[in-house]
Write a structure and sequence with these properties.
Helix content: 25-40%
Order of helices and strands: EHEHEEEHHHHHHHEEHEEEEEHHH
Radius of gyration: 20 Å
Strand order of the largest sheet: 4-5-8-6-7
Shape: globular
Distance between the termini: 46 Å
Structural class: alpha+beta
Strand content: 15-25%
CATH architecture of the domain at 59-118 and 159-213: 2-Layer Sandwich
CATH class of the domain at 59-118 and 159-213: Alpha Beta
């Protein structure tokens, strides 16, 4: 598979990058590492006429802060840097842990934290080459009018398959965007939309500049990932757990599921099972049961979907039990 023809721009500043995007319009797209965009272009899932590289912009390649008052991570910081940065490993080990599960070392050298947070949704009927998709008359997400996962549905059910998205939602991170219209700071939980096509509440002209992590202040978080192989594969279930304790009781909690729907799913019932109580096996089992009840994976990724639903319980137990061990 070959890339289609396109114009490649390398702006020197953020202001220049967003101006090029504003001038070119919907036929342009930003790119950093390109580990998601370029394969999609080869499969003709995305066909921008102009590609604007932001990989070398200085402001997008910085990690600033010490964790006590928060941390600023530029959107073009590579996943390898996220895994190896000492401040992230010390203050935000869950971010380094989740980043380390993404793809392979070679691809982590190119892929960026911003790219993983804006990852295109995935589906067995969508992530195929052009000829394969043409053979089934395409799908609702691209060039067709039927969602082959749920043919009677008017909604696309392609799955959010980022490892870092449920983590960022769980820990309360914010994402900073910019355009020629100005800056915008968005809570991670508010960015993702439950639709496989319109999966981001983001304008096409906006550039993701940075990820702002909140001060640690004693909270802890963990991430567990289900996939067929121990490396390379996308998650078919991801569980991010966040807990803050006050003395012997949980004062705040979040459990977020990824890899089973077009957007991450925060299980509020799981948090209710934990808050105000000690983090013990009984409460963990109750939270895991709540996650199992709310998990509704579809048959558009690897493994049997009923089994993936069962695993929502087990992987929630693993994520919360890790926090007890820590």
């Amino acid at each position: 598979m070959r890339l289609p023809k396109f114009e490649y721009c390398t702006p020197q500043t953020i202001a220049e990058a967003v101006k090029v995007m504003a001038d070119v319009g919907p036929d342009a797209q930003f790119v950093a590492g390109g580990t998601d965009l370029y394969p999609n272009m080869k499969r003709r899932q995305q066909t921008p006429k102009t590609v604007i590289s932001v990989m070398r912009l200085k402001e997008l390649n910085q990690i600033l802060g010490d964790g006590t008052s928060g941390l600023h991570i530029g959107a073009s910081v590579t996943l390898t840097e996220v895994c190896e940065n000492e401040t992230i490993k010390r203050a935000y080990p869950v971010v380094a842990q989740a980043a380390r599960t993404i793809s392979t070392p070679i691809l982590r050298n190119m892929g960026t934290i911003g790219g993983n947070l804006l990852l295109d949704t995935r589906c067995n009927y969508y992530d195929q080459n052009f000829e394969w998709r043409k053979g089934i008359n395409f799908c609702l997400k691209k060039d067709g009018d039927v969602c082959w996962v749920a043919p009677g549905s008017s909604k696309c059910w392609a799955v959010q398959s980022s490892d870092l998205v449920p983590v960022m939602v769980a820990i309360g991170a914010k994402l900073r965007f910019t355009s020629t219209l100005g800056d915008r700071l968005v809570h991670a939980a508010a960015l993702y939309n439950d639709d496989g096509i319109e999966y981001l509440r983001k304008r096409p002209d906006e550039l993701l500049v940075s990820i702002e992590l909140p001060p640690t202040n004693g909270w802890r978080a963990s991430y567990q990932k289900l996939r067929r192989r121990g490396a390379f594969d996308f998650p078919v279930l991801g569980v991010a757990a966040y807990v803050k304790q006050d003395r012997n009781a949980v004062s705040e909690a979040r459990v977020v599921l990824g890899g089973i729907a077009p957007s991450p799913i925060e299980i509020k019932e799981a948090a209710t099972a934990l808050v105000g109580k000690p983090l013990n096996n009984h409460q963990i089992q109750a939270a895991a049961e709540a996650a199992y009840i709310k998990a509704r994976p579809l048959d558009n990724t690897d493994f049997v979907y009923q089994w993936r639903k069962q695993m929502a319980r087990q992987y929630t137990i693993k994520a919360l039990s890790q926090l007890v061990e820590d």
